[in-house]
Amino acid sequence: MKRGIVLLLVTMFVTYGLSSYFLVHYKVQKNDTLYSISLNFSVSPSLILDWNPGLTLTSLRVGQEIVIPQPPGYLYTVKKGDTLVIIAKRFFTVASLIRRANNLNSDVIYVGQKLFIPESIIGRAFNNEKFFIWPVYGTISSGFGWRIHPITGKYSFHSGVDIAAPEGTPIFAAESGIVEFAGKNGGYGLMVKIKSSSYEHVYAHLSRIDVYEGQYVKRGQLIGRVGSTGLSTGPHLHFEIRVNQKAVNPMNYLPSRIWVLRKELIGAGGE
Ligand SMILES: [Zn+2]
Hints:
Layout: H1 3-10, E1 12-16, E2 22-27, H2 34-40, H3 45-51, E3 65-70, E4 73-77, H4 84-90, H5 95-101, E5 114-118, E6 139-142, E7 145-148, E8 155-158, E9 161-164, E10 170-172, E11 177-184, E12 190-195, E13 200-209, E14 216-217, E15 222-226, E16 236-243, E17 246-248, E18 261-262
Parallel strand pairs: 6-18
Antiparallel strand pairs: 1-2, 2-3, 4-5, 6-9, 7-8, 9-16, 10-15, 11-12, 11-14, 12-13, 13-15, 13-16, 16-17
Helix pairs in contact: 4-5
Bound molecules: zinc ion.
Zinc ion binds near residues 158 and 271.
């Protein structure tokens, strides 16, 4: 047996949940990096970051225990007003696949319930276009252009679109690229900036960031969760597309089929 496999066997144990997945509890070894662990378990570094709150690229310590789900997937905590159909849409998939992954006999769910969403079912139903995709399923609460700022009350330019969605809603990379910035940025709160060959995209007000600077992310990969950090009146994603450092109207680049709902002034906005 290869030394690597032996090491894996003595440094981890598994726990089973009610769902069709189990958690590997892995003890960090000398010379491990987030990337090497992700390769060992055939998961993306983002998945490890999402499952291990507080973990960062530099905080990894020998002996530290991290959890990794198998098969790869994400947890979603049911919010008030959620239905299985709406949750399925937030992962751009269908309810029946979530039902199966969680051994549910019906569509009845309860607030606070944790649902396991296998990576393999994400993006299966829609929002899988070739170029840009919608980063979040939600309600457009503010468009691109001049407006009265919801917090400052001043007439100002809104450099992106705001998509309102509950805290914890997954955010997916709209296009493949390299993470250029991941961290706090003033009124943008927790923010991720991804650079592709021709564009930069900005994702702001996150509740958590699941990528690190320098990481390559694929279109459709989970990069964080919706929040309300920075200058914001409620959970939403502020999404920007920039060309040569200049913000352009994302609606001209996102798929013409609007997967997100359009509704003005539903009360979540900000920078
Ligand atoms: Zn905004």
